[in-house]
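Appendix B, Record 12. Input sequence as logged:
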Amino acid sequence: MSPESPPNGGEPVPLASHNDVVKDRTLFFNTLRSFHHALLSKFLIPVIGGKELNLHVLYVEVTRRGGYDKVVAEKKWREISAVFDFSPTTTSASYALRKHYFTLLRRYEQLYFFRNQAAMLNHTAGSPSFHAIGTIDAKFDCGYLVSVKLGDETLNGVLYHPGYPGGAAAAPPACTALVPYTPVPHQPGRRTRRRRSTDPSRPKPNRSGYNFFFAEKHSALKSLYPNREREFTKMIGESWNKLSPEDRVVYQNYGLKDKERYQKELKEYKERLKMGQTLPF
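Logged structural output:
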């Protein structure tokens, strides 16, 4: 069955019943394309984890649970994301599903599922507006480990530098060395200049307890799973969260000792600079 498209820019009307589009994947995509064509809205199938998102499955799962608003109210996005076969490296899948559903399917849902044409026209065509609070937990060669609080849900993931090609799907082994992240406070009215070169005699920055844990576990995982390095960051983070307080304090003590080492060496380094001395390379 191939429904006729409404005139370009015309008011969309339902071309089939909700039950029909649920049962027939081809009919669903034909009516969805016609719907966006009528609204002059952009329609592209999104990609998550290197694969095209199955919008038909997403629509069926959301409407089966009562529609977008009910799924949001009952916090069912994580449950819906479990239906999809996302790769282990895919982060924040539930957030991505919610965003794409809002943009591509929510107005379609009003027309086909609720048969509420007026409500459909009242929804804006733009992207959803979510209030989120994010923090940077650590940084590594290619980006940052971040935590994002979205409502009552906390999402953990990896944020790669914009210039890094391929993103998470192509993260190389070199992108696994974590270092502590300390934001540099901004001083109004004062311009900062990035150093073009580093002083080789400057002390090596201290590492946190988690950094020591990461290095130890990474070495062990590399020998056990040489072909799964892209999953190591997640695996190690989960192992860290499962540590008992007694086991965790061992690594935290490593971090404290390394901090003492760094502070001592930094003090000596600054004293040498004041005296105009330099160390041999």
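The longest strand covers residues 132-140.
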